[in-house]
Amino acid sequence: MTVGELLTRGARKFPQKPAVICGDNRFSYRQFNQRVNQVAQALLARGLRKGDRLGVLTENRHQFLDLYFVAAKTGAIFCPFNNLLTERETEDLVAYAAPRYLFFSQACADKVKALAPRLTGLEGLFCFQEIGWEGAESYDALLASGAPEEPACQVEPSDVMSIYFTSGTTGQPKGAMRSHHHLVTTATTGVIENRIGYDERVLVVTPMYHVSFEDNIGRCFLVPNTTVIYPGHFDPAGVLAVMEKERITCCLLVPTMINALVHSPAMETADLSSLRRIFYVGAPMPVELLKKSIKTFGRFGCGFCQQYGATETGPLSTILPPEDHVLDGPPEQVKRLASAGRPVLDYEVRVVNRGKDTMPGEDGEIILRSEAMMQGYWRMPEATAERIREGWLYTGDIGHFDEAGYLYIIDRKNDLIISGGKNIYPREVEEVLYQHPAVLEATVVGVPDDYWGEAVKAVVVLHHGAEVTEKEIIDFCAKYLAGYKKPKTVEFWEDLPKSASGKLLKRKVRERYWEGRERRI
Fold first, then answer.
1. Which of 236, 243, 194 is nearest to 218 (CA)?
2. Cβ distance 442 to 465 under 8 Å?
3. How does DSSP classify residue 85?
4. What is the secondary structure of 281-331 as a DSSP string?
């Protein structure tokens, strides 16, 4: 099966069922399928060929989903770009992917206009709104010009369906090539592991250029459900209002978004009685935040489900289902709140140290193997060979299994702090910081130290109105951590840098303290 067939079959099976909702725009499966066909036929009439890249630069909107399925049905390759990148970053990324057509929103129009003369190979620029400069065309006019019949294109499961780009938090973004077979496999796994039925109303909040969108959409269209797109950027009160109005049943969020919802005044009056499941992805969830979130959303009967993976994987690789989110129970059960769960049915997961599998409780690098992982990085054979070795994808994450087969992710290999020859994992310190009642957000990095090499620094955001001193934070950590692990210094910031998907950008914090030094360790 190919990704395009998911939509075609859904339109035949449930033609009148709501497929896509975005603000005031509402499309049934028949209507949405016809839109996709019209755009596909219009581009084919202009000479679109299999393997051509379709670039998209926009905030969250329903036309993004149109183009995703246009690529799926025509054999084109879907390339979503981060709309918040600078002009230079955008130019580098678009040049790397080399799309034949670029679709963009009014908010990105000035950036596209400036870049267009320097981007070779572009044959068409299409704006989702009316645009007043020569060289850009109307997306609505393109849609109106196409016939509604299914495209007669030969698309194979092994064909590359999309290129999703790594976040670039540790260097230049790389494009992970994801095939139709990859995506249908991970969608099937997601439906089974998450027990998805036919009556879900799924809210898409994370940026649609992020791989979590593709994971969401596969599940929504394999078992035809209703996809509700939250337009624009994340706003806690706005998200809660849409959850209530559209009777949302499932939503995928990153921990910083959950934190914002839990502490939003709007949570006190929100009616989320339809909400049955929150999936959290993208970054480790501090246990104290998870406990608070379970209690906050638990009054609606909403369960939590952790999904671990990466742009290069399904992304779904391991899962911690709602029944493993135990607040009151035997210690071995409660402890699992800190885990990433167990491997999903289509993934093999190992933890290795110097090429050998570790014993339970012993840390090593997490490696994965599945039909659902990427084919490789677009036009980067050396980076692909470094990441995928003998069929195994090396994640760069450090962790261990326990005796029951639950995977615990300790930290990123690159985030390890080595102080006085001792290894310190920032996440362990961050978990303690989140237990302090004054702390809203925290991150921990290694900073230069002439004696120890690196020293542990905590950067903390406090709850509004909270007051606490550096010494009080350090003394608090000393109650739970060995002396060499506790922060040597603490800084208080108004906010922490985050990517558009809500992931804390630890690299940007760390760089502030290493600026001007030749060595970064």
1. 194
2. no
3. S
4. -SS---HHHHHHHHHHHHTTT-EEEEEE--TTS-S--EEE-GGG--SSS-H
Those residues whose C-beta lies under 8 Å from the C-beta of residue 349, and which sit 6 or more positions away, are 317, 318, 343, 366, 367, 368, 407
Q: Which residues 6+ apart lie within 8 Å of 97 measured at CB?
A: 53, 55, 79, 81, 163, 175, 378
What domains does the chain contain, in order, with CATH numbers? 27-155 (3.40.50.980), 186-412 (3.40.50.12780), 416-514 (3.30.300.30)
pLDDT along the chain (521 residues), means of 10: 98 98 97 98 97 97 98 98 88 95 96 91 93 88 97 98 76 88 96 95 94 92 97 93 98 91 96 97 85 95 94 94 94 93 97 96 96 96 96 94 95 79 83 95 91 89 96 94 91 91 85 70 42
How far is residue 221's CA from residue 9's CA, in Å, rounded to a whole number?
9
Q: Is residue 92 a contact partner of residue 117, using CB atoms and an 8 Å limit?
A: no
Q: For residues 266 and 439, what is the distance between their CA atoms, to the nearest angstrom?
A: 21
pTM given for the model:
0.86
Q: Is 365 helix (H, G, I), strand (E, B) or coil?
A: strand
At 284, list the tokens.
């480790």
